[in-house]
Amino acid sequence: MTAFNFHSLRNSQAIGYFFLSLLLLSGCNTTHTNFLSDHWVTQTSAPPLIATHSEPSRLQVIITYDGPLSSHSALRLESDNEQVTFWDPAGAYGLVGHFTDQKGNRIRPYGKRRRDIVVTHIPDIPTYMKFRWFVGDSSVEIFEWDLPTQEAEILRETLLNETDETHPRGEFHTKTTPAFCAMGISDFLIRFTKPTINLTSTYLWPHSLGEALLAESPSRVRVFIRGQEEMIYLPPHQQVVGP
Q: In whole angstroms, what is the distance from residue 122 CA to residue 7 CA?
């Protein structure tokens, strides 16, 4: 197994903050959807709509940007029974009682965390976008894979209950060292999402993880830019439905 066992660094807070400083000081020099092929289809979230999902559940990997910097990554899992699991590794969602949207409206409740899983008032995508604008981000990319119900339930069980050293794929915990959000998510994807996602390397920078995920055949990529309408990028094989 090629995955780096980042959990051994979980208690090394000084190392985490050191890398966080590097992250804030270094530019990614990337633009949104930089790595998308010209063959991908672009459309707004308004009609025509994307085709009905081929599977009832979906996995979402979220990459956020603060100007030229990729600032954070998170993972969201939607099951067909309307259960949602939101893993925010080393993130800030749920750490204060409320936040405000761009119009100054106070948004409550904010949610509570168990380790790095948000377990109450789990945000939908519009709410999480309001939070990202609140913390100063300028854009967000969401990579989505439609999943069979059984696969989604296995992933949900892994995220909620974690694993120990006796598990065939090793020990896994959601609590993540600061600045290692993308490394934590890529480690999880390597070990638990095959054959849907066949990632082979871990990534420190969120934008590098996003670039790698484009090669893993996502069902769609959703792009949010502050003050603009959501855009949806579909791979060449994805059918578009008329109004």
A: 25
